[in-house]
Design a protein that fits this description.
The complex is a heterodimer. Chain A is of the alpha/beta class. Chain A is 38% helix and 26% strand. Chain A is built from nine helices and ten strands. In chain A, strands 6-7-8-3-9-10 form a six-stranded mixed beta sheet, sandwiched between helices. Chain A has a four-stranded antiparallel beta sheet with strand order 2-1-4-5, covered by helices on one side. In chain A, helix 6 links the parallel strand 7 and strand 8. In chain A, helix 3 crosses helix 4 and helix 5 packs parallel to helix 6. The mean pLDDT of chain A is 95. Chain B has one domain: MetI-like (MetI-like fold), CATH 1.10.3720. The longest helix of chain B has 36 residues. The chains are: A alpha/beta, B mainly alpha. The interface between A and B is medium-sized, with 27 and 23 residues. The structure holds adenosine-5'-diphosphate and magnesium ion (MG). Magnesium ion binds next to helix 1 of chain A. Chain B: Keywords: Cell membrane, Membrane, Transmembrane, Transmembrane helix, Transport. Chain B: Its main location: membrane.
Chain lengths: 244, 226
């Protein structure tokens, strides 16, 4: 299988505090990986290193065949190939839904307005909200905003997608619509890393589940093994809390 | 009871002409000064927020110099000092306009900078995650949101600055204040002239505020007060 992401002995500190501790992880093209772990364990920092939003001090990060430079010098080369969805959506409030999706393809990939618009409408249809294209984000519900955020990332036609707790800020009743969208996306063969505590999603979609604690990867397993026979005590404790 | 004789102002056609010209000059100065000052202010705010010291220090120095000295001193410096140092001659209108632009730009710059600081970090981060470059993020993401946030402050500042512009009559620009003085010096009806000027300034302020607020609603239709 072709490798899409390779993290080799990745270490990162915030000042004297080590957020990432010797992370080794290799992810193949079209693989779906769910990352979970307690708050503050470094999950966000880890995926932010994957798309060069965070610099790191040692180790190597390889994404889409490009070696990410520690200081972020080639960050935009990575970022145009990697889509990201945030907990707080981070839609651009001053742009219509359509413009949210077309801005980067026009400016970064050099598409014309028409080309980008057609592509954006294609992905807005995929996330099932083409009818909202001319509205501003503030006029949409949280679930709709997050689906727009997914469409916005997809319009760049990324080689992989990162999700950082995409449903944590949502009202419970709209979580499903976003998860369904992510399941659909998974079925298209997209490479995905999802930080999430939605264990139902992990069981349904993930090829592997990664458990992190205190900046380390504690356990990596298939969902079947992860949920039925977690090997580490900390994983067991975490699962007992999350699964209730 | 004071004996008010407003007709002493309207009686002479030259007075009415000077008054109308004065209003026109004041409005023109404000429109030009407002627009040019805003563009300078934008550049200054960007420079002051820059990582490059060569840009940051001069812009900060300029902004603080302007904000900590009286407008009248700046006016004399630009209208008489600069032409002497660099040996050029400009009409008073142009010099006064330049002085106003420089003065406005410093105040605008500080307001705009506050706007930059208030745009959520997640916005530029999301833009970076899409592969947008620094300049695009500034122009397409941060700037529009920063301006929308501080637009009401910019409008208030504009109106406030308008009310200080009467001072340019000191260097012979024939604005509204100058017209008032011209008339009062000839008909000796200082009090009536004073009342007319006050009303004219108040009406113009209300007009500027109204036009600018309406413009804001057109330019930032998406903006919701948080
Ligand atoms: N910019 C930063 N500066 C200093 N510490 C940070 C910064 N960002 C995150 N941290 C710290 O790093 C740790 C891991 O953060 P994060 O990756 O966000 O964890 P998670 O996503 O698993 O909750 C936390 O203890 C957090 O306080
Ligand atoms: Mg997090």
């Amino acid at each position: 299988m072709e490798t899409c992401i390779n993290l080799n002995d990745l270490n990162k500190w915030f000042g004297s505090f080590q957020v990432l501790d010797s992370i080794n992880l290799s992810i193949s093209t079209a693989e779906k990986v769910v990352i979970c772990g307690p708050s503050g364990s470094g999950k966000s920092t880890l995926i932010r290193c994957v798309n060069a939003l965070e610099p790191f001090q040692s180790g190597s990060v390889n994404v889409c065949g490009i070696s990410v430079e520690k200081n972020g010098r080639n960050a935009t080369d990575i970022q145009r190939r990697v889509g990201m969805v945030f907990q707080q959506f981070n839609l651009f409030p001053h742009l219509s839904v359509l413009k949210n999706c077309t801005l980067a393809p026009c400016r970064v990939l050099g598409l014309s307005d028409d080309e980008a618009g057609a592509k954006a409408m294609h992905y807005l249809e995929r996330v099932r909200i083409p009818e909202q294209a001319s509205k501003y984000p503030a006029d949409l519900s949280g679930g709709q905003q997050q689906r727009v955020a997914i469409a916005r990332a997809l319009t760049m036609e990324p080689e992989l997608m990162l999700f950082d707790e995409p449903t944590s800020a949502l009202d419970p009743e709209v979580v499903t619509e976003v998860l369904d969208t992510m399941v659909d996306l998974a079925e298209t063969g997209m490479t995905m890393i999802c930080v999430t505590h939605e264990m139902g999603f992990a069981k349904q979609v993930a090829d592997r589940v990664v458990f992190m604690d205190e900046g380390k990867i504690i356990e990596i397993a298939t969902p079947e093994k992860f949920f039925s026979e977690p090997t580490h005590e900390r994983t067991q404790f975490f699962l007992s809390r999350v699964l209730g | 009871m004071i004996d008010l004789r407003f007709y002493e102002i309207w009686r002479e056609q030259i007075f009415v002409e000077k008054l109308i010209n004065g209003i026109g000059t004041s409005i023109l100065l404000m429109i030009l000064g407002g627009i040019i000052g805003f563009i300078f202010g934008l550049a200054l705010a960007t420079a002051r927020g820059s990582k490059i010291r060569f840009l940051r220090i001069p812009s900060a120095t300029f902004i603080e110099s302007v904000r900590n000295t009286p407008l009248i001193v700046q006016l004399f410096f630009v209208c008489f000092g600069l032409p002497m140092i660099f040996e050029y001659r400009w009409p008073f209108f142009a010099s006064a306009l330049l002085a106003l632009c420089l003065n406005f730009s410093a105040y605008y710059a500080e307001i705009i900078r506050a706007g930059f600081d208030n745009v959520e970090y997640g916005q530029s981060e999301a833009a970076r995650a899409l592969g947008l470059g620094k300049n695009d993020i500034l122009a397409y993401i941060v700037l529009p949101q920063a301006l929308a946030k501080v637009y009401p402050s910019l409008v208030s500042q504009f109106v406030f600055l308008f009310l200080t512009t009467g001072i340019i009559s000191e260097v012979g620009v024939e604005d509204l204040t100058w017209a008032g003085r011209y008339i009062a010096d000839r008909n000796f009806r200082d009090f009536e002239v004073f009342i007319v000027l006050t009303i004219a300034y108040a009406l113009l302020s209300v007009m500027f505020r109204g036009v600018l607020t309406a413009t804001g609603q057109l330019v930032f239709p998406w903006y919701r007060e948080k």
